[in-house]
């Protein structure tokens, strides 16, 4: 494998736990790779561990076991390597209002990373350039304002500008448009896509909305209860979903109504009580309908934790089916 | 090389220019707030009076021996602007010099209180569970120290002096500030913008300097502007109870002496009214100005 093809981020059997006695297994054995210059959408229900997973990539959540590598360097707790990591990887948050210090002007918000990493050059020019690239033009109109004087969409653009000002290799975006008006979501997504196409950054975009994945992602990773259950190229995953959970998710997306709508039954998943066997089996339509029994795999569904296996080139799923 | 230096200089100049603009904004807002401006004017006036006391009045008017030839209980007007007390001392001189002591005690006690409280609060809020628990236990101990008994004990052990009063006030009031600051640090620490700063590669020192302190400062200032009047009132109380510095005239001491000399019975209002009004005015001015300051320092409270 040549240097260029090596994944920019790779996660191996990553576990992140919370709570007393680490009983909440928010991320529970994730294997995932992010390729250079791609948009990878991370989809799944709320509470399945998406935010925790990307926070662990930038070292905001300590990993209980497993390993994360960014550009060949392991993510550790060591202060110096964390600092280096946090220049190569940037993150934008679900709530742009909370992510901006209300006492800092837009200039200070964008310049903060430049100052921390002592980026050489004229700070004012770098900030103006970053704002303009994020679509805040003319930048002079924004630099002296405070976050509360901007709209939600403008705040998210400020955060994108601040992240991209450091010219990262990876941008982690936690539900980047979830808090924005539907009318401006498209623009912000297009902006993010343009950074991939023009600057070759890799983006991991967390979403609980498959429609968004459809719009900007090259590949989709589906997460369920702390684990990746299906990964593949966007068209393939959306057109030929291999995991019953992906199918269920897709069946409720308006654009894909051709699938028979499936409402998932059973209790909502709880990361402190992950079922034995396949973690999806208590809610799995294939098990519930008796199809698994007919195919003679029901015992495995209930007793054996499936691993990701290849279904088509570059398309894997974790299911006994 | 020179390019780097020039960039560095221009960067610093820019920061300075930005700061100047921010201060200009703050002053502009203050100028529009009439009440705060009035409060500030009163404070400046009292401060000037305290500062230039020797030029305004003759300090011989403070001394009972120097005042032996003066009439006692003289009404205002004539030789004595505010009249004289039961010993023939000038009330005006006592008022002007009293402002000195009252303001000094108020400010010194506040500075000490806020300094100790802030340092302890930030440490507790930012350290691990162990340090936090220990410091909070310590503040609990100090919080339950009863104020007056301590003041009496200290006055009898250390003697009655201005610094002892400052000390008593600070020792008993820093725990409240420490708890306030710690609580604020704990909430600021959990804010998403602190996570963002960490994700940007910020060190702990950077987070404290750029995010925690600026977001805690308004609270500290607000509590400080409220601590000043409380300290002044406390000094008044202590002086009124006869625990003040016997050699220094303060507004509280004037009230105490007026009370002891029976000024109220004699209806000698000119003896106690100036000191009483002085205390009320300064306390009000500090409170009004403190409120306005809090508003000015918080960009979210500004309307545009
Ligand atoms: N700091 C935390 N402490 C305890 N539990 C947490 C914490 N962060 C997340 N969790 C739990 O971990 C699980 C995954 O959360 P999260 O990663 O936020 O999910 P998502 O982003 O997919 O909605 C949830 O059950 C959540 O309650
Ligand atoms: Mg989330």
From TrEMBL, chain A:
Q: Where is the ABC transporter domain?
A: 9-250
Q: What is this protein called?
A: Unannotated protein
Classification lineage: unclassified sequences, metagenomes, ecological metagenomes
Give the Gene Ontology MF terms in alphabetical order.
ATP binding; ATP hydrolysis activity
Keywords (alphabetical) are:
ATP-binding, Nucleotide-binding, Transport
State the organism of origin. Answer: freshwater metagenome
Name any Gene Ontology BP term: peptide transport
Which PROSITE patterns is this protein grouped with?
Answer: ABC_TRANSPORTER_1, ABC_TRANSPORTER_2
Q: State if RNA-binding is listed as a keyword.
A: no
Gene3D superfamilies in alphabetical order: P-loop containing nucleotide triphosphate hydrolases (3.40.50.300)
Pfam families tied to this protein: ABC_tran, oligo_HPY
Among SMART domains, the record links this protein to:
AAA
Q: Which family does it belong to?
A: Belongs to the ABC transporter superfamily.
InterPro entries the UniProt entry points to: AAA+_ATPase, ABC_transp_ATP-bind, ABC_transporter-like_ATP-bd, ABC_transporter-like_CS, Oligopep_ABC_C, P-loop_NTPase
UniProtKB/TrEMBL annotation, chain B:
Q: What keywords does the record list, in alphabetical order? A: Cell membrane, Membrane, Transmembrane, Transmembrane helix, Transport
Organism of derivation: freshwater metagenome
User: Which Gene3D superfamilies does this UniProt record tie to the protein?
Assistant: MetI-like
Where do the TM regions start and end?
A: 35-57, 103-126, 138-156, 162-181, 219-243, 269-293
Name where it mostly resides. membrane
**GO cellular component labels:** plasma membrane
The record's listing under CDD domains reads: TM_PBP2 (cd06261)
Task: Please give the name of this protein.
Answer: Unannotated protein
Q: Does the keyword Isomerase apply?
A: no
Presence of keyword Transmembrane helix: yes
Domain (ABC transmembrane type-1) ranges? 99-290
**What GO terms describe the biological role, i.e. biological process, of this protein?**
transmembrane transport
Where does the UniProt annotation locate this protein?
Cell membrane
Pfam families the UniProt entry points to: BPD_transp_1, OppC_N
Topology in membrane = Multi-pass membrane protein
Please give the InterPro entries that the UniProt record associates with this protein: BP-dependent_transpt_permease, MetI-like, MetI-like_sf, OppC_N
């Amino acid at each position: 494998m040549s240097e260029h093809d090596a994944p920019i981020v790779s996660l191996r059997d990553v576990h992140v736990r919370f709570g007393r006695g680490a009983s909440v297994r928010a991320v529970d054995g994730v294997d995932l790779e992010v390729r250079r210059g791609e948009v990878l959408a991370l989809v799944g229900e709320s509470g399945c561990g998406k935010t925790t997973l990307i926070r662990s990539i930038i070292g905001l959540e300590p990993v209980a076991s497993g390993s994360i590598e960014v550009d060949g360097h392991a993510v550790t707790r060591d202060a110096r390597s964390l600092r280096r990591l946090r220049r190569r990887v940037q993150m934008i948050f679900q709530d742009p209002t909370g992510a901006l210090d209300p006492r800092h002007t837009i200039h200070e918000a964008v310049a903060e990373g430049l100052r921390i990493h002592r980026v050489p050059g004229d700070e004012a020019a770098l900030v103006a350039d970053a704002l303009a690239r994020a679509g805040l033009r003319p930048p002079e109109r924004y630099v002296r304002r405070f976050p509360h004087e901007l709209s939600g969409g403008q705040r998210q653009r400020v955060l994108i500008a601040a992240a991209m000002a450091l010219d990262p290799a990876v941008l982690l975006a936690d539900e980047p448009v979830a808090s924005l008006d539907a009318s401006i979501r498209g623009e912000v997504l297009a902006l993010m896509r343009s950074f991939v196409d023009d600057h070759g950054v890799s983006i991991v975009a967390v979403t609980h909305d498959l429609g968004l994945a459809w719009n900007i992602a090259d590949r989709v990773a589906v997460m369920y209860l702390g684990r990746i259950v299906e990964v593949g190229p966007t068209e393939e995953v959306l057109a030929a979903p291999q995991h019953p959970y992906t199918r269920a998710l897709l069946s409720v997306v308006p654009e894909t109504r051709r699938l028979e709508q499936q409402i998932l039954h059973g209790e909502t998943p709880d990361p402190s009580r992950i079922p034995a066997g396949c973690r999806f089996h208590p809610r799995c339509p294939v098990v519930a309908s008796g199809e698994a029994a007919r195919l003679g795999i029901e015992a495995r569904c209930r007793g054996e934790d499936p691993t990701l296996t290849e279904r088509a080139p570059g398309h894997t799923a974790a299911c006994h089916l | 090389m020179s390019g780097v230096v020039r960039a560095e200089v221009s960067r610093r100049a820019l920061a300075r220019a930005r700061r100047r603009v921010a201060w200009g904004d703050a002053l502009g807002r203050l100028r529009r707030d009439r009440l705060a401006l009035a409060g500030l004017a009163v404070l400046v006036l009292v401060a000037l009076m305290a500062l230039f006391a020797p030029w305004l009045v003759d300090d011989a008017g403070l001394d009972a021996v120097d005042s032996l030839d003066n009439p006692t209980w003289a009404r205002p007007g004539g030789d004595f602007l505010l009249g004289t007390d039961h010993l023939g001392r000038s009330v005006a001189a006592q008022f002007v010099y009293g402002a000195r002591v009252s303001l000094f005690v108020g400010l010194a006690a506040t500075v000490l209180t806020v300094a100790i409280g802030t340092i302890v609060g930030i440490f507790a809020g930012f350290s691990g569970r162990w340090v936090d628990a220990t410091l909070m236990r310590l503040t609990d101990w100090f919080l339950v120290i009863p104020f007056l008994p301590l003041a009496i004990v200290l006055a009898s052990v250390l003697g009655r002096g201005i610094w002892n009063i400052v000390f008593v006030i600070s020792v008993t009031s820093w725990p409240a500030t420490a708890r306030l600051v710690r609580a604020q640090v704990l909430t600021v620490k959990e804010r998403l913008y602190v996570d963002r700063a960490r994700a940007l590669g910020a060190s702990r020192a950077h987070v404290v300097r750029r995010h925690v302190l600026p977001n805690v400062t308004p609270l500290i200032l607000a509590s400080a502007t409220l601590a000043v009047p409380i300290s002044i009132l406390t000094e008044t109380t202590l002086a009124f109870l006869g625990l003040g510095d016997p050699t220094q005239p303060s507004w509280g001491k004037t009230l105490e002496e007026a009370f002891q000399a029976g000024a109220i019975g004699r209806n000698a209002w000119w003896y106690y009214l100036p000191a009483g009004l002085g205390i009320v005015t300064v306390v009000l001015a500090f409170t009004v100005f403190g409120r306005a300051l809090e508003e000015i320092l918080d960009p979210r409270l500004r309307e545009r």
